[in-house]
Structure formats: structure tokens, C-alpha cells
Amino acid sequence: MRHRLLISVLSLLAASVCAGLAFMGHAGDVKDGDLAQYSVSDKQEIRHDLSAYTQGLFFYEGRMYESTGQYGESSFREVDPATGKVLREEILPAEYFGEGSCAFDGRAYILTWYEGLCLVYDIETFTKLAELPYQGQGWGLTTDGSSLIMSNGTSVLSFRDPVTFMEQRTLEVRNGVRPVPYLNELEYIDGEIWANVYGQDFIVIIDPVSGQLTGRIDCTGLLDARYRTSSTDVLNGIACNPDDGSVYLTGKYWPWMYRVDITEAGK
Ligand SMILES: [Ca+2]
Fold first, then answer.
1. Neighbours of ion ligand 1 (CB under 5 A)
2. Any idea what the CATH number is for the domain that residue 36 is in?
């Protein structure tokens, strides 16, 4: 619960925080005076399948699930959050590039990148129930408990009906006036949307009503340099266990995932 309490308290202080850091690497483009800055203050290492090109990570009823990508390597699996061991696995058809995933009402939803289909499985039996079509690319997926929330590589998130996958509304994510593109893996935590940004070592926190960023979590160095190889790919994968508020982060082809404490930078 630690991060929840800190974020709740610190959000009240956000207006007084003025880190003055440029965002998205474009110095001078955006003033981040209203953006709360967080970092990983503590982490617990948990093994992560080195062959997992992580696209989605989430908890459902106390169990952790992960979806992975790449043609011929894509899968959906249940993972032991204590050991990282893969407990169950469904290999996706070789012509599907797995993307983000989440669960709603006993069903797991797994996006595909270019295939335009959301794969729906019974989360208890891993039996495929449906393939729901959508337009455009699929990147990240989460749920606020009533809608599914999807990213597609742009700055625009779409809210979708869990039964039909039809789009209900869209939300442009902005930092001030500037759109924030490349939104990737998503996690709905305590009324806000956390999002990986493709190729970046930070996570953004998004107000799901206004689309404005409210915070930025610096994850630089989360995966220690000694574990990096030529195969190591980007930070991607956010899961929160609502039972205890614990947050887990990982990356594509990372040897570790981390149960993390998030605190305001400099505190
Ligand atoms: Ca997630």
C-alpha cells in the first residue's frame, strides 16, 4: 500500500513540485512544473523468463498473467509472482503477434499487433472464446473495471466495451498541450492509468478523464547494467496486485521482473 499512500499524499503537493525537467527528451518543449516526479526507491528481484518479449502484465483474482509477442513466439501465460515460474501457457498461432492483455469478468483479452483481432480466453481453462475485431494496431490493454482501455502506439487511448470490443470513447494523452505518443503497456491503478512509453525508461501516469499526465516515474537503471546483453529490449510491463497494492515492472527479454516501491524523486 506504500505507493498508494505516497501518491495520494504527494498528488496534493504536486502543484508545488517544480522539477524543471524537460519531458520526452525535447529540452524546452514542455515545462513539467505540474508533473509529479517519482522514482523506484526499492526493488525485489524475481526471475523473469528470458525468452518472454513482454507485452502485457496484470493480476486477476490474485494470480499474475503475462502476454508475449513476436511472430512464432507469442504466448499467454500464468506466472508465479513469487518465483517468476511459468505455471500455464497458451501458445498463440504463429501468424499472431501478441500484444497487451488484461482480464475482465473471467475472460482474458490479448491484443494482436497488426492482425486486428483481440483474442478472448476463459481465464480458468485458457479455452479460446472469441476473436473480436478492431481497426488499427494493438499495443497495450488494461481495464478500469467497466471498460477495456487500449493503446495503439499513438497518444490516443480508446475505451472499449468488454463484450463487443466496440470503441466507446477516445482519450488524447497530453503533457500540457503536447500529445504523448508511443503509449504502450498499460495498468489502471487507483483511478489513474500508468503507461509505458515505447523506448523510454520512464512510466507516465495519466488522468483517465482529462488525459493529462499527472506524474512521471523514472525507471532508469531498474535493470542493472550487468544483466544487459545485446538481446535485452525495452522496459515494458506494469502489473498491480489490487489485493495488496504491490506493483511489478519488467521489460522485453529481461531476466528479472521487480516488485517495486515508488516514491517521489528526491524524497
Ligand atoms: Ca498491465
1. 57-58, 187, 238
2. 2.120.10.30
Q: How deeply is 150 buried, as exposed, middle or buried, from its count of CB atoms within 10 A (0-12, 13-18, 19+)?
A: buried
Q: How far is the CA of 195 from the centre of ligand 1 (A)?
A: 8
Radius of gyration of the chain (CA): 17
Enclosing domain of residue 143: 2-264
Query: What's the pTM?
Result: 0.88
Q: Which amino acid is at 134?
A: Y
Ligand 1 centroid from CA 28, angstroms: 31
Residue 236: name the closest of 224, 223, 252, 255 by CA.
Answer: 252
Model confidence pLDDT, tens digit, residues 71-113: 999 999 999 999 999 999 999 999 999 999 999 999 999 999 9
How far, in Å, from the CA of 95 to the mean position of ligand 1? 23
Torsion of CA 193, 235, 4, 181, to 10 degrees: -30
Q: How far is the CA of 172 from the centre of ligand 1 (A)?
A: 19
| Total number of domains in the chain | 1
